[in-house]
Amino acid sequence: MAFTRPYRSRLVIALVATFIASLVGLAFPLLARDLFNEAFAAGGENPTVSPGRIALILVAIFVVQAGFNFLRVWLLGIVGEGVVADLRRTVFAHLMELSPAFFLRRKTGEITSRLTSDVSTVQQLVSTAFAQFLNQSVTLVGGAIALLVINARLTGVMLAVVPGVILGGAAFGRRLRRLSRDFQDRVADANADAEEAIANVRIVQSFTGEGSERDRYARGIDAAFDMARRRVLVRAIFIPTVILAMFSGVTLVLWVGSREVLAGTLAPGDLIAFLLLTLFIAGSVASFTGLFAQLQEGLGASKRIFDLLDEQPDLPVRTPALPLTGDVREVRFENVWFRYDEILERDARDTSSEDADEAWVLQDVSLTLHPGEVVALVGPSGAGKSTLAALLPRFFDPQRGAVRLAGIDLRDAEPHDVRRHVGIVPQETQLFSGSVADNVRYGRPDATDAELEAALQAARAADFVHALPDGWSTVVGERGLRLSGGQRQRIAIARALLKDPEVLVLDEATSSLDSESEAAIQDALDVLMRGRTSLVIAHRLSTVVGADRILVMDRGRVVQEGPHATLVHEEGLYRTLFETQFRDRRVGVAT
Q1: Structural domain tally of the chain?
Q2: Least crowded by CB within 10 Å, which of 149, 195, 285, 462?
């Protein structure tokens, strides 16, 4: 209902139109009553009320009812579509504000399922079920009042079955809501599996995993189908049972009413009107069963949607947040400890235990990056290098210690403010499906063509971009798959450079390049890193030889620190890694 507020005027008009159309519809059995009573009273000759006149009145009533029904369907359709559009925008905007940890806990397909199928279920509730509920309510209440006026005793006979229907509906409804929610969950799981397989189709096909993916998706769909069958069974039992009960009541009314007509205590037209109104009420109750089932499905879907909207970012923001007013190029990591298990809410351990060192990805890391300094992080896989870099744009918060920018604890600053000053070239290059220009301008949509060209030139990407069919207007395809790995990485570097951040994080930024391209980009990066603080993560030590300082990490700790010329001559992990990579180039080691 909160999402209908922008459309309140349309909604009110539609509900008024629904109310009027429903009331007008009740006039038909009452006019039929007058017609038959007059006909029977006159013995079929010279009735006081002309049948033609009544027929014309009925036609006029039906035309008026059609007009109001048009208003109802048209306006509620607009309201339903608007609510769904707003709901999708709100959910997506909220998702974009959630912390990266949330997306580590959820599958992408599950989230998109809530944006699509769940929202569509809610749309049906808003655009059709709501109006039908009002329509059938007016018919039920108005018809019951008319029945009481016509014959109170027969009304009691007809309404005797209603309490049983209501109690049965409540019991079936609870069961139906649980089944509907479980069905949506199974569909979301299947969609998540499908999205994962489609996104990694090259891996699937290269390992001939098509069969296993088909089986996995089929199992998910079978689970959803099984839940759907159970839901259909409940509805199949519930709806016919209600209809049977209501029409049994109609039959009872017909029998009792016929006896009263024969006894002369009830006019024939009253019986006909009573039967018509009873059929209207029976239809309303039968419609309520379907609406109730639809309501339960909508509630199940809306609960899943509002579960997303109730998600809070894992990164709290201080109110008011502190502005980054100092030299943001100064970065400090102070006694930082970090672990993922609590963020993922899996196998959470006691963080106060100092014995569970294997759970800590980072352990008591202290590091200062001075303004304009280039600091390299090296070490074996799993040493914590990328995790340390992920703390800098505040994708995560450390469980202990602090990360400071311009002397401000990142937990006291607005995350958008922090990320505005930090540029990242990730290890896994991620491009969007737009053009080259769209991707490079992603951090600065207002950048001029000259600035775009300068960024491409600096990233040594201009030559291959101009060689593309449409230059920088060429669409790169989903995730940039129309470009080679090296080309994608150079576009990502150009994107970070155009943003022109004070702090630059390069996470294996040259890992997808051949030796010639790597050398060209390394020359560009050496120039462009001047004047800004740079944190460079690399496995290939040749790319960090010129860094001001090199930090060697192992098992979440900094075990060595210094320039290349010093570390290469010291006993330790750095020398071991260097000699392993350059075993065939002893001259380089000596140098």
Answers
A1: 2
A2: 149
Q: Please, are residues 469 and 475 in contact by the beta-carbon 8 Å criterion?
A: no
Would you give the DSSP letter of residue 397?
-
Pairwise CA distance, residues 585 & 215, whole Å: 50
Residues 434 and 298 in one domain: no
- Which residue would you say has higher pLDDT here, 400 or 109? 400
Cross-strand partners of 558: 553
What value does the CA radius of gyration of the chain take, rounded to a whole number of Å? Answer: 36
| pLDDT tens sequence across 519-575 | 666 666 676 677 889 898 887 777 778 788 999 999 889 999 988 888 888 888 888
Spatial separation of the C-alpha atoms in residues 166 and 163, rounded to whole Å: 5
CA angle 92, 95, 101 (to 5 degrees): 160
Six-digit token pair at 78? Answer: 């607009």
Report the distance separating Cα 387 and Cα 363, nearest Å: 12
Residues 299 and 441 both lie in one domain: no
How many CB atoms neighbour CB 36 within 10 A?
18
Q: Which of 500, 516, 533 is the last residue of a domain?
A: 500
> What CA–CA distance (Å, rounded) separates 584 from 258?
108
Peptide bond preceding 316 in cis form (omega within 30 of 0): no
Domain that holds residue 457: 430-500
**Angle at 12 (CA atoms; ends 8, 15), nearest 5 degrees:** 135
Amino acid at 320: P
**Between these two residues, 102 and 181, which has the higher pLDDT value?**
102
Residues belonging to the chain: 591
Q: Which parts of 114-209 fold into alpha helices (H)?
A: 119-124, 130-150, 152-159, 162-199, 201-206
Residue bearing tokens 């009331």: 23
